[in-house]
Design a protein that fits this description.
81 residues, mainly alpha, elongated
């Protein structure tokens, strides 16, 4: 497999890092299944997990660093000033 050009499901070619969708398409599984493997969930068969992990390694997949949660004010009745 080459990682120079990735083919996402929308048919447009792009270069760069692999996405869960690219890995899922290569493995013949859903994006949700790839996400479960990446996040270490136990509800994936050993065979599927091994295949997805192999493809993740082949594509040099690294998860994006998540941004810190933003503080969102709680919704409630307006306060009188």
């Amino acid at each position: 497999m080459t990682d120079a050009v990735l083919q996402p499901s929308n048919g447009k070619q792009r270069s760069g890092r692999a996405t869960l969708a690219v890995i899922a398409a290569s493995a013949g599984v859903s994006v949700a299944t790839v996400s479960k493997v990446v996040n270490g969930r136990a509800d994936v068969s050993a065979t599927t997990r091994a295949l997805v992990q192999e493809l993740l390694a082949e594509h040099d997949y690294t998860a994006r660093r998540s941004e810190p949660a933003r503080s969102v004010p709680a919704k409630g009745p307006p306060t009188a000033t």
